[in-house]
Amino acid sequence: MSSQDQPPQAQSEQAWLAAYDPRAFPPVAVTVDVVALTLRQDRLHVLLVQRAGPPFQGRWALPGGFVRAGEEGLDQAAARELAEETGVDTAALRRVHLEQLGSYGAPARDPRMHIVSVAYLAFAPDLPDPQAGTDAAAAAWVPLDGTDPTAGPHRGGPSGRTGPAGHPLAFDHAAILADALDRARSKLEYTPLATAFLGSEFTISELRSVYEEIWGEKLHAGNFHRKVLSVPGFVESTGGTATRAGSRGGPRARLYRAGDARLLHPALLRPDREEAVR
Amino acid sequence: MSSQDQPPQAQSEQAWLAAYDPRAFPPVAVTVDVVALTLRQDRLHVLLVQRAGPPFQGRWALPGGFVRAGEEGLDQAAARELAEETGVDTAALRRVHLEQLGSYGAPARDPRMHIVSVAYLAFAPDLPDPQAGTDAAAAAWVPLDGTDPTAGPHRGGPSGRTGPAGHPLAFDHAAILADALDRARSKLEYTPLATAFLGSEFTISELRSVYEEIWGEKLHAGNFHRKVLSVPGFVESTGGTATRAGSRGGPRARLYRAGDARLLHPALLRPDREEAVR
DNA sequence: GTAATAGTGTCTTTCAGACAGTATAGG
DNA sequence: CCTATACTGTCTGAAAGACACTATTAC
């Protein structure tokens, strides 16, 4: 090793960069696609848009679009696309949890060219109906049928998930959606993100219905109640009580807000699943 | 809805695709980078290469390279880069666990242009010293100092992780490496992937040392032993025993091979961590 | 009143961790 | 012999799940 502490060839690297031609590289495009989930009337919904132009014109697809080169990072691009396609302003977006899901880059997944899509997963509280963006013919919250037979023990891999009209989703979006549902189900186990589907104040029963809808199974009300309150930082009491009891009677439930925990410790593990996946 | 069941405008979509110009799109390039981890003499090592050309010429970096447009998917590209940079043939690659870690796409993370990197995480058994690829000046397994103060309670976020000469890593590779170590630590909890660091036959003590090195803490030998054997599908006995006991005596340990479980149920949770991250 | 719900008490089982104890090998 | 190690036994405490019970409200 010489005494050279500077990065080697700093001078020539400047010259090299000035002469660098980005268009000399093979064209691979980058998009972001967002799997935005929400609960409406206790049913899980996903945000879909109907494609206005080719390819897959008229088919339903996940909202998404090309990353603006040199202008924005991936997280930013996902937030922008979500805002554009939902008509949700940036203020409401702060109440939405958005995380990267994974990237999909099979060469033929898009007929135009080789396109790598970075998929994002969003958990949103109940939002108004979306406004279709400029490149979409329509946008809607589409119910994910809870009676889906593929939502069985742990595997949520519907390769034939369909849009509102029953048509299959465009591109490989059915596979992305399946991965997103898998991720969502396990996120509820070890993070408090179920609260992201609810308003700022909620009852334990409302929280339980989030778990029941996403996991697709009934939970024991009493044990769930005690368990949630025993996990430090999951929820904290507001002191208030709901103004109205359930539709079929019962005492008014106490109200809680999300706590400051980022991880649940101990976790809320899903029931059985019969020895997991072997 | 009309009676039209075909995708709308199938004819014109063909024409549209024929006229599509991929180079009309803004240039964002896609690379894959691999964080390959292995254990050598019971110490955690990462595979690094020294960059032969600009940018960051002479600096150490994660092995990686551009995705070959239209030719390969992301997983393929990662496997190819790993093989190229290690000199490991495809046969030996089958014993390596490779999974997607996440994508990094800040506009300025590469001085040349906007480049999105899809990062992969690899768990490898002890492999021979790597051969530097064509675009690398050198390649080496670099020890990750277990005495790293940033490897404290659960957070493994060393933004200043350095290469062999103590220089910082190129690009944002230190951040990617930190995320990879986080992922690796939690993967050991709920998957049997610790066995991917070992040969086809191993003792419980060797398995324990994998956990101890990656988690950075000593585990109770007796409890670990019973726990591993009690998780269905984690390991299965070969019937044999080690030919030699430990360097300081003791009975010869029994040998095991990896079982068929994909997930550990119940999981091997890491000790305490003091109420997790709040 | 009837029925459904909120919330609590208790029991059993499972599992993690602490600790002790025995057998086996290397030096 | 001494010591470190492989492996097993046992106890305690934490936590999950099953069940039961009370109190409260809508209808």
If you had to describe this structure to a student in words, what would you say it looks like?
2 copies of one chain form a homodimer. By secondary structure, chain A is an alpha+beta fold. Chain A has 2 domains: 29-185, Nucleoside Triphosphate Pyrophosphohydrolase, CATH 3.90.79; 191-276, Orthogonal Bundle (Arc Repressor Mutant, subunit A). The first copy, chain A, has helices spanning 10-18, 74-86, 90-93, 173-190, 204-215, 221-230; strands spanning 29-40, 43-51, 60-61, 64-66, 97-104, 115-124, 136-143, 235-241, 254-258. In chain A, strands 1, 2, 3, 4, 5, 6 and 7 form a 7-stranded mixed beta sheet that branches. The longest helix of chain A has 18 residues, at 173-190. Chain A is elongated. Chains A and B meet through helix 1 and strand 5 of A and helix 1 and strand 5 of B. Chain A binds a DNA duplex (27 and 27 nucleotides) through helix 6.
CATH architecture designation of the largest domain in chain A: Alpha-Beta Complex
Order of helices and strands of chain A: HEEEEHHEEEHHHEE
Helix content of chain A: 10-25%
CATH topology-level fold name of the largest domain in chain A:
Nucleoside Triphosphate Pyrophosphohydrolase
Work out the number of β strands of chain A: 9
Q: Class of the largest domain in chain A, according to the CATH hierarchy?
A: Alpha Beta
Whole-angstrom Rg of chain A: 22 Å
Shape of chain A: elongated
Strand content of chain A: 15-25%
Distance between the termini of chain A: 51 Å
SS element count, helices of chain A: 6
Oligomer: homodimer
Largest sheet geometry of chain A: 7 strands, mixed
Average pLDDT value of chain A? 85
Tell me the name of the CATH homologous superfamily of the largest domain in chain A: Nucleoside Triphosphate Pyrophosphohydrolase
Largest interface: A-B, 60 and 60 residues
Low-confidence segments of chain A: 1-9, 146-159
Structural class by secondary-structure content of chain A: alpha+beta
